Amino acid sequence: MSGCYSISELARELDITTRTIRFYEEHGMLAPERRGQERIYSPRDRVALKLILRGKRLGFSLAECKELIDLYQPDGSNRRQLESFQRKIEERRAQLQQQLLDIQQMQLELDVAEQRCSQALQELPA
């Protein structure tokens, strides 16, 4: 079975736990073959796992990662997958930009509250 991986090989290669791999399998994101109790992961499963890990680092939900995995075609064009990934990146970037603006606004409000608090403390009798 050249090009296939055991759960421990994938975990070691990707620096994750076997429990993490089983979690994604339980969520239908990986589909290893079974040989008795042993799981045999295909190159497609390896790519899917790498997509999941990359998606998580970028802040994508499991559902979004699964959607991208479902579009993956190991022997064909991945245009749909890449276009979908690009849209998700643009959406995530917009979300992060909004979060940054929200954080900056909150920092300004905290500055004002802190100034008012300091001023009120100074006005209190000693």
UniProtKB/TrEMBL annotation:
Any coiled-coil regions, as ranges: 79-123
SUPFAM superfamilies according to UniProt: Putative DNA-binding domain
Keywords from the UniProt entry: Coiled coil, DNA-binding
Molecular function terms, GO-annotated: DNA binding; DNA-binding transcription factor activity
Record-linked PROSITE patterns: HTH_MERR_1, HTH_MERR_2
UniProt cross-references to InterPro entries, sorted A to Z: DNA-bd_dom_put_sf (IPR009061), MerR-type_HTH_dom (IPR000551), MerR_fam (IPR047057)
Residue ranges annotated for the HTH merR-type domain, each copy included: 1-71
PANTHER family (alphabetical): HTH-TYPE TRANSCRIPTIONAL REGULATOR YFMP, REDOX-CYCLING DRUG-SENSING TRANSCRIPTIONAL ACTIVATOR SOXR
Listed name of the protein: MerR family transcriptional regulator
Species for this entry: Pseudomonas mangrovi
